[in-house]
């Protein structure tokens, strides 16, 4: 029988068999090993999700777009009951190889997303309210692992692989510098493409403005008649990162006593992706003083120079 012809070469045959088995494991489906995910935000500061004070986390109802290796279209994952479930069941391609996995947040229903062009939230509609910030934030994550190095088949976007913020965050804390009542009516920011509609390129790790999209250079926040308490009044806005130090014009309209004022200045700053730029704005009779209150950490922070500008009354 043919089997006896292999006996003198048994050691070589066993080695070849083991090699073939390993190769087959890498080439064949992973015997129904389902793939799961877990996710967290890199820094528990202001983020895309629900805000409790300044601590944030993903909550039920959040939606993530997840890219399998070598697949350009994302799969929707939704957080339910503290766990993530996919719109279609996914399986590990094999049980041996290491794979790179990408994900983004939020996954917007009704939009077409591919790996190199993911629609980002429309930040031109921001209200400036801290509680609404989560509606406009955008985060991405990347990790690499094999089935063996995963957590029981679960791809983990946590720790160093947690989701990272991609917009720049500007937080303004307004203070009343005198005894008169102070209320804010409007904040206006103007600069090149600061709130233009953009997409995110996961391959190139960059925010990009599509050629067909118009430039949106102005963001107006209606403050109503927000009274500035002793503790201060906070506005927070997301801006597209700038590739160079370009002037952003800031104009504040407010009422002190019964008189209306406006104050403007140009802020020259390189707003970097994932960074939080915080200003404390003290409104005084002698002028409007804008300075750094602290350097807070979103992904990382940046120290800003103090800026001092003068009032211009709207009324005689």
Give a short overview:
The chain has 316 residues and is mostly beta strands. It has one helix spanning 10-27, and strands spanning 36-39, 50-52, 55-57, 63-67, 75-80, 83-86, 98-105, 118-119, 139-146, 154-157, 164-165, 168-176, 182-190, 199-201, 206-208, 218-227, 233-239, 246-256, 259-269, 275-284, 287-291, 300-301, 307-309, 312-313. The radius of gyration is 26 Å and the shape is elongated.
Note down, in words, how this protein is organized.
The chain is mainly beta. It has one helix at residues 10-27, and strands at 36-39, 50-52, 55-57, 63-67, 75-80, 83-86, 98-105, 118-119, 139-146, 154-157, 164-165, 168-176, 182-190, 199-201, 206-208, 218-227, 233-239, 246-256, 259-269, 275-284, 287-291, 300-301, 307-309, 312-313. The strands form six sheets. It has a six-stranded antiparallel beta sheet with strand order 6-5-4-7-9-11, with no helix packed on it. Strands 12, 17, 20, 21, 22 and 23 form a six-stranded mixed beta sheet that branches. It starts with 9 loop residues before the first helix and ends with a strand.
């Amino acid at each position: 029988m043919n089997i006896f012809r292999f006996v003198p070469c048994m050691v070589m045959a066993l080695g070849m068999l083991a090699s073939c088995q390993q190769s087959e494991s890498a080439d064949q489906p992973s015997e129904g090993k389902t793939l799961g995910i877990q996710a967290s935000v890199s820094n528990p500061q202001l983020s895309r999700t629900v805000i409790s004070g300044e601590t944030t986390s993903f909550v039920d109802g959040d939606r993530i777009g997840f890219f399998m290796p070598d697949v350009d279209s994302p799969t929707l994952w939704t957080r339910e009951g503290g766990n993530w479930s996919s719109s279609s069941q996914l399986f590990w391609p094999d049980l041996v190889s290491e794979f790179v996995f990408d994900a983004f947040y939020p996954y917007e229903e009704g939009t077409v997303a591919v790996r190199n062009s993911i629609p980002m939230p429309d930040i031109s509609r921001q209200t400036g309210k801290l509680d609404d910030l989560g509606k406009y934030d955008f985060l991405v994550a990347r990790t690499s692992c094999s089935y063996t190095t995963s957590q029981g088949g679960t791809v983990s976007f946590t720790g160093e692989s947690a989701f990272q913020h991609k917009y720049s965050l500007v937080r303004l804390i307004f203070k009343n510098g005198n005894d008169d009542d102070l209320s804010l009516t409007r904040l206006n920011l103007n600069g090149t493409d600061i709130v233009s509609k953009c997409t995110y390129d996961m391959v190139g790790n960059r925010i990009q403005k599509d050629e067909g999209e118009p430039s949106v250079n102005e963001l107006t926040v209606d403050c109503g008649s927000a009274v500035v308490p002793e503790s201060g009044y906070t506005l927070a806005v997301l801006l597209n990162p700038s590739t160079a130090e370009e002037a952003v014009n800031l104009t504040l309209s407010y009422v002190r006593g019964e008189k209306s004022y406006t104050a403007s200045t140009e802020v020259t700053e390189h707003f970097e992706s994932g960074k939080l730029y915080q200003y404390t704005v003290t409104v005084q009779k002698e002028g409007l003083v804008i300075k750094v209150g602290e350097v807070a950490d979103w992904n990382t922070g940046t120290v800003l120079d103090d800026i001092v500008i003068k009032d211009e009354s709207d009324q005689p």
